[in-house]
Amino acid sequence: MGLYRGMPFADARAFCPDLLSAPAHPARDARFLSTLRRWATRYCPWVGLEGEDGLVLDITGSAHLFGGEAAMLDDMRARLDRAGLALRR
Predict the structure, then answer these.
(1) CA–CA distances in Å: residue 86 to residues 8, 49, 60
(2) What sign has the CA pseudo-torsion 85, 88, 54, 65?
(3) CB contact set of 81 (below 8 Å; sequence gap of 6+)
(4) Distance from C-alpha of 63 to C-alpha of 46, rounded to nearest angstrom
(5) Rounded distance between C-alpha atoms, residue 75 and residue 81, angstroms
(6) Cβ-contact 16, 3 below 8 angstroms
(7) What are 3-55's pLDDT values in tens digits?
(8) Residue 89: pLDDT band by 50, 70, 90 thresholds?
């Protein structure tokens, strides 16, 4: 949508008029990311943290278990969508 980290809120609202803001909760976010990391091990044995707000999965040797990379990504996207989360690669 054209948003980026550190963008002034007024500029972000120009791109997304319905954008809402809330105070940050870094400790809560870290706990959630840790939980999401454990959840992601369903797709591969190694899941690492990527910065403060992302995960990286080493799916080497795992994708075929889900019918290939595209099918694995579709499964991830569907499960995360049901949980109200968005997936980005």
Answers:
(1) 22, 17, 23
(2) positive
(3) 87
(4) 13
(5) 10
(6) yes
(7) 988 899 999 999 999 999 999 999 999 999 999 999 999 999 999 999 888 89
(8) low
